Amino acid sequence: MYDYLIGQVTRITPAYIALEQQEIGWKIFTPNPFAFRINNEKQKIFVHMHVREDAQDIFGFKSLDERDLFLKLIQVSGIGPKGALAILASGNPTQVIQAIEQEDETFLVKFPGVGKKTARQMILDLKGKLGSLLETIELPSTEDELPLFGVNPHKQELEEAILALTALGYSEKELSKIKSQLEDQVNLSTTEDYMKFALQLLLKLK
């Protein structure tokens, strides 16, 4: 129905952003809401409307490639929009695509809601169909990986990141395993930074 929306981001929550367009606030679910900024500039967000019997949800992405991978993922039996968002939030789409191409189930089951059966289904359904995405997809910077230790001055940003990860489906048990490492990262200052680093740690847990 819609290809993209252009407007101002007026609200950011752990699960979604609000995009104001002509005095209407669109509730848009996105892999990492904190990748967006609240400012006076208009932003283009590529969207997908997911219609169910009990809801009509809008999912938004910063790039067409990100949306294309999302659409491929939700076609797999066992992966819903929330699960696809959790996979995209890892910030490593190339790794996801390579894992599918190499039939690496061990990597795929690290995501919330993805068991061995679903991982196998991802491989069966998507292997050989994602090559074009691998050539064009954009990767985020990983310059925030340097470990520094000390008192964390950004507790609010850290707590927002924990809430966002919970919204993506990560369990309290999983998050408790990495929280102390996040608290030690005094070089991280934004919620997006904490999200990126936390997801890197979560993918190394299993």
How would you explain this protein's 3D organization?
The protein is α+β, with helices and mostly antiparallel strands and 206 residues long. It has three domains: 4-61, OB fold (Dihydrolipoamide Acetyltransferase, E2P), CATH 2.40.50; 64-136, DNA polymerase, domain 1 (Orthogonal Bundle), CATH 1.10.150; 143-202, no CATH class. The chain has helices at 64-73, 81-89, 93-101, 105-108, 116-126, 131-136, 155-168, 172-183, 191-202; strands at residues 4-12, 16-21, 24-29, 43-51, 56-61. It has a five-stranded mixed barrel. The radius of gyration is 17 Å and the shape is globular.
Overall mean confidence score, pLDDT? 84
**SSE string, helix = H, strand = E?**
EEEEEHHHHHHHHH
Could you name the ranges where pLDDT drops below 50 across 5 or more consecutive residues?
139-152
Number of helices: 9
How many domains, in number, for the residues?
A: 3
Distance between the termini: 39 Å
Task: Tell me the overall shape.
Answer: globular
- CATH architecture annotation name of the largest domain: Orthogonal Bundle
Tell me the name of the CATH class of the largest domain: Mainly Alpha
SS strand fraction: 15-25%
Largest sheet, strands/sense/barrel: 5 strands, mixed, barrel
Alpha carbon gyration radius:
17 Å
Structural class: alpha+beta
Strand order of the largest sheet: 1-2-3-5-4
Helix content: 40-55%
Protein name: Holliday junction branch migration complex subunit RuvA
InterPro entries: DNA_helicase_Holl-junc_RuvA_I (IPR013849), Hlx-hairpin-Hlx_DNA-bd_motif (IPR003583), NA-bd_OB-fold (IPR012340), RuvA (IPR000085), RuvA_2-like (IPR010994), RuvA_C (IPR011114), RuvA_C_sf (IPR036267)
Subcellular location: Cytoplasm
Keywords: Cytoplasm, DNA damage, DNA recombination, DNA repair, DNA-binding, Hydrolase
